[in-house]
Amino acid sequence: MDFVSPVLDVASRICNCVGDRADHLRRLPQNLKSLRAAMEKLNNVYKDVKERVEREENLEKKKRTHVVDGWIGRAEAMEKEVNELLDRCDEENQKKCFGTCCPRNCRASYKLAKMVPEKMDAVAELQSEGSNFPQVAVPLPSPLVIERPFDEKPVVGLDSPFREVWRLLQDKQVGSIGIFGMGGVGKTTLLKKINNKFLQSSIKAFDIVIWVVVSRPTNLERVQETILDRLDIPHDRWKGREEERKAEEICRVLKTRKFLLLLDDIWDPLDLMRVGIPPLGDGNQSKIVFTTRSADVCRGMAAQKSIKVECLEEKEALSLFQAKVGEDTLNSHPDIPKLAEMVAKECKGLPLALSVIARAMASAKTPEEWERDLQKLRLYPKDVAGTENDLFSVLAFSYDSLPDEATKSCFLYCSLFPEDYQIPSKHLIQLWIGEGYLDEYDDIQEARNQGGKIIHMLKHVCLLEVGTWPFLIDGEYLKMHDIIRDMALWLACEKGKKENKFVVKDGVGLISAQEVHKWKDTQRITLWNKTSIEELREPPRFPNTQTVIGRMTRFMFPSGFFTNMPVIRVLDFSNVEIRKLPTEIGNLATLQYLNLSGTRIEYLPIELKNLKKLRFFMLDDLFSLASLPNQMVSSLSSLQLFSMKFFSSPSPVDEIMLLEELEQLEHINDISIRLTSIQSIQRLFESHKLRRSTTFLQLAGCKAVNQVQLLSPSCIKELILVMCDEMEEVKIIHFEKQVVPSKFPNPQCCFNHLLSVLIIGCKKFLNLNWLIHAPKLQYLCIKRSKIIAKVIEDERSEGSEIESSLSVFSRLIYLVLLNLPKLESIYGHALPFPSLRWIFVWGCPRLKKLPFDSSICMSKKLENINGQQEWWDGLEWNDQTLMHNLTPYFQPCGSPYNVKSTYLVHPITRQSLISTKFESYRADYGNLLQFPPYSSLIQTTTGTSSSPPHIYPHLYHIQSRASTSMAQDELQFPPESAFISSMNHLWHLNSISS
């Protein structure tokens, strides 16, 4: 028995093993059928997922998730493995013993039979996973971060708060961080340093970093639109929608992102839920960092951590102060370094104060100057209650150091503009003249020159800054730091004792009558951006008011508004939606500056002729004005500047009568005018007074004029020729009225004042040789001239004398060449173009060479060369070095022709436009910088095309002025030249909805 039992046990085990393997082999056919069915289901799910992914990637510009991408890869690998397994099973099934159903290789067949159920389970798991994806793709990420420019050297005293904020950004328990401290202490610099830290490729803690400047007053709509643009949300999803819809779009996208939101310059607690920011702490590790001057705002915004930015320690403050003063000044006398240390201490470690006062001291090269200025600084109290007063009492030192009362008044005047406003310098100076700050100069040009010197001085001592907008003909854009502006308002209001002395209202809506009546002691009033005054029951009294400026508002003059303004000097209602002026405006006997540009005025009251002291009268961009009252202009006996740029009347204006009235004015010396007939042109040039006074000349639609004869020397600064179909040339006439026959006239006959030339639709021009005598030309645009072959012909034999005395295009900043089918040359040989920043070439197929040479020092200011890719690829280069040097600047742009109609040239009806928001005076139109054909502009404004960034850098913001029911072809626009030129100070085009 002991021998039999083991044998039986072994036999039993063998039977069980054989039976198990036999069972796998017996079920193999059914399992193979099930595997094929499961694989077919998996393939169907795979196709569905793949189609869904491709649709969202191609149509919605999304990117597949990593989970889905991994699943697709595993599904494809599984299909390959299953097919190989099925092939092996089919192959093994063919290998059976002759006459039986038994496999020849039982061991191999068993292994395959065992693998089939395992694959069935794996296929079923993949199928289940693929059927339950909540999303297969996510939006393509915007750039992680956009660099914020700031002066990194020297950045003093911010290392400690920077390290603390950086540590908190990595703390999963902290979602919101508030940075607070007094104005000018470096909060914005710290935030920029944090922002730019993410430029390092190794740091990818967030999907996107969003920067928003909030400023004061808080504009929720502007905050939302900044975020929406940064998230690349299509405009049609939110443009023109209510606040709640915009918030929903922001929230929808941010919920899918791990974001860092940087909010700069918050003055009041911002309701993040109203903005559309999803709650933090939902596991996505998003964060918010904001700056403010108040710890109360940190509490109001429920900051989880608050960090105070302190003033600098003495050593750090001295280091910053010395760096700003400069080694040249510090080394000018052995006593100055010690005096600099004493002055730095008086600044109490405030970085902005250190910078401002250091600049003010930079030109002091003697100990006596330092001692005198140190004593002045010490006269201010060190401990004044309130952060603002502490700051202003230090910053006011720079104000008190200004040389005279006129300069101080000019500085305070800049505070009348809104925060972050880009102020055109030339119009700021005109306002200063109108206010009487420069009355010691009888000649308007001398006054302008002095105004330029004042601006230079204010910039040097850091009381004014250069604006961010790039280019302005005959000037520059300026801005005030918000702290400096607050300080200036504080000073203008007698250090806060008379808070209504300067009244600046920006985007506040309707102002009550009760508040208006508090302005009886107000000296200057400025109303901006949707600010208006409610109807007054009785005429207001403004016995001390010298200035009223309204911009971008819907202003309805309350009854008797001008009745009690005995000392008014400046009225500026440019871009205000007014249709008529009250007749009592003619009683403003002291008025010297009146700007009605861009209004909807239909008639001017004849009573304006009573304004005997009026010196500046601007009527630019008026498309509704029927006519000018006879003898009104000639009655303005003190008039010095008269401007009617881009004027287009529903009825013809008697241009000759207007010129005759202007000629009667004794003091006129600055005329900007648009003429449309040969008789008007002849009348202009027959008058010595009109010739020497005309600084802006637009000739539009002069059909019968084949040449323009310009007297040299000329005072014209801006020349525009539009749709003069028969015009072939511009001839220069010597002041003795002898026509110079040479293509290159005597160099003494120069257009020394000419800065801008715009030529549109003058089809018969052969060349513009006369431009060689415009040595200060900054902007040149030639468009739609069918036969021009050369901008300037290169005839060295005749032009050698010219070339030796003049540097052709040496001041040129912008060059625009559009639709010139026969243009072959800009200039016959290479030029240095030392000032050139931007070139735009379109529709010039024969232009094969640019007038550059690698042996000539190119402009270091060059930023962009825009044009068609095929044009660039077809350019011919004398050497490859030049091509390699210029290629980084080239940026191709798509066709500007995107609609079937080439141009809309109907006169504008203001009813088709309701609210145009400008960031600059429209009185400066005429220096068009960059523009595509008009049809593209119309298409873009109607929302059928996105705005090309390199074609519209100066288009800022246009809101719909048309009813939602108005068809696109019912929108009325002005003539192309007038509309384009009137848009040149705008920065970003939003929409004109149909």
Structural account:
Strand 19 (641-643), helix 21 (655-663) and strand 20 form a beta-alpha-beta unit. The chain has 28 helices and 30 strands. Helix 10 (314-325) runs parallel beside helix 13. The radius of gyration is 37 Å and the shape is globular. The chain has 994 residues and is an alpha/beta fold. 34% of the residues lie in helices and 13% in strands. The strands form six sheets. The protein has a 16-stranded parallel beta sheet with strand order 11-13-15-16-17-18-19-20-21-23-25-26-27-28-29-30, sandwiched between helices. Strands 4-5-6-3-7 form a five-stranded parallel beta sheet. Strands 8-10-9 form a three-stranded antiparallel beta sheet. It starts with a helix and ends in a 12-residue tail after the last helix. The longest helix is centred in the N-terminal third of the chain and has 55 residues, at 4-58.
Features:
994 residues, disordered C terminus, five-stranded parallel beta sheet, single chain, 34% helix, 13% strand, alpha/beta, globular, 16-stranded parallel beta sheet
Write the layout of secondary structure elements.
Blueprint lengths: L3 H55 L3 E3 L1 H28 L12 H25 L6 E3 L19 H11 L6 E5 L6 H11 L10 E6 L6 H11 L12 H12 L4 E8 L5 H4 L11 E6 L2 H6 L4 E4 L5 H12 L1 H4 L5 H11 L4 H11 L5 H12 L8 H14 L4 H9 L9 E2 H11 L8 H17 L4 E2 L10 E3 L2 H11 L9 E5 L2 E3 L1 H4 L7 E5 L2 E3 L13 E5 L18 E3 L20 E3 L20 E3 L22 E3 L11 H9 L6 E6 L2 H9 L1 H6 E7 L6 E6 L5 E5 L6 E6 L21 E5 L18 E5 L12 H10 L8 E5 L19 E5 L21 E4 L1 H5 L6 H7 L3 E3 L41 H8 L34 H7 L12
Parallel strand pairs: 3-6, 3-7, 4-5, 5-6, 11-13, 12-14, 13-15, 15-16, 16-17, 17-18, 18-19, 19-20, 20-21, 21-23, 22-24, 23-25, 25-26, 26-27, 27-28, 28-29, 29-30
Antiparallel strand pairs: 1-2, 8-10, 9-10
Helix pairs in contact: 1-2, 1-3, 2-3, 6-7, 10-12, 10-13, 12-14, 13-15, 15-19, 17-18, 21-22
